[in-house]
Amino acid sequence: MNIPQLVERKFLFASRQPITAPLYEIVIARNGVFKRARRREMQAVIELSAFAVKIPELAAGEASVELIENIPARIFAEILSHAQNETDAANFTENLYAVCRNNETDNYFWKEVSRSRSFGSTIARDDDPAYKAAVLEIHTHPPGCREFSNQDDCDESGKFRLFGILVDIHSEQPAIRLRVGIYDSFWEIPIEFITDAPLENLTDLVKQERERLALQICSSLGDDALEYILAEEYRAAANLSYVENL
């Protein structure tokens, strides 16, 4: 019996080199080491480490998330409305949602998939077909809890999908934080990477923090550096590394 190799290790010789591993692959590129994976609905690349000395014989890698079709902004508005109606600020409990894509109709839909709920946790109905097929797994957090928790890291391990948290859902400024996970490796991304339109009623915490960090750094570097970083809208891994390593 010929057992397929689920994880592949390779060099990157072309920027659009196909992802072929059934689970994921570790790729050595000109500028660093990357983890890559693909599924029917999406493919993603996460930078694991950056090289101080480049390898000129290889192609440059870049962190990215690509969906075959971006998720409609209305999905997030509907989930937020449902979460607000399911619980109130005085008796808050977490809710968990799965966002899936129907590959026959090419439409996205969402489903509430909480098995049990409490103030600081929710357990998924992991036998639900929608949960198993989710492109995005998103849950609400208690007021003020604006980061993914250690428990989130444990619950979201061993999967390849998008993950999100909704925070302060009963406040005047509800917020969202999004990341992509490739089998225990995570990269936080602005929500504009995966939506078809801006979200009107949600503050994007990742985008907000990156813009604040860029302004803080560039206040001491000058206007030229600010224009360089903001021009790329944080899409290039090189810019992220540049900002984070200063």
Query: Rounded to an integer, what's the Rg over CA atoms?
Result: 19 Å
Mean pLDDT: 87
Name the helix and strand elements from N-terminus to C-terminus, one letter apiece. EEEEEHEEEEHEHEEEEHHH
Q: Approximately how much helix is present in the residues?
A: 10-25%
Please tally the β strands and state the result: 14
Structural class: alpha+beta
Q: Find the CATH superfamily of the largest domain.
A: Cytidine Deaminase, domain 2
Low-confidence stretches: 231-246
CATH class term of the largest domain: Alpha Beta
Largest sheet: 7 strands, mixed
CATH-defined topology of the largest domain: Cytidine Deaminase, domain 2
- The DSSP helix count reads 6
Q: Ends: how far apart? A: 52 Å
Tell me the fraction of residues in β-strands, as a range.
Answer: 25-35%
Shape: globular
Count of separate structural domains: 3
CATH architect. name of the largest domain: 3-Layer(aba) Sandwich
Description:
By secondary structure, the protein is α+β, with helices and mostly antiparallel strands. The chain folds into 3 domains: 7-67, no CATH class; 73-201, Cytidine Deaminase, domain 2, CATH 3.40.140; 208-245, no CATH class. The chain is 24% helix and 31% strand. The protein contains 6 helices and 14 strands. The chain has helices at residues 73-86, 129-132, 150-155, 205-221, 223-231, 237-245; strands spanning 7-11, 24-28, 32-38, 42-50, 64-67, 96-102, 107-112, 114-117, 122-124, 136-140, 160-167, 175-182, 185-188, 203-204. The strands form 3 sheets. Strands 6, 7, 10, 11, 12, 13 and 14 form a 7-stranded mixed beta sheet that branches. Strands 1-2-3-4-5 form a 5-stranded mixed beta sheet, with no helix packed on it. Strands 8-9 form a two-stranded antiparallel ribbon. Helix 3 links the parallel strand 10 and strand 11 (160-167). Helix 4 (205-221) runs antiparallel to helix 5 (223-231). The chain is globular and about 60 Å long. The model is unreliable at 231-246 (pLDDT under 50).
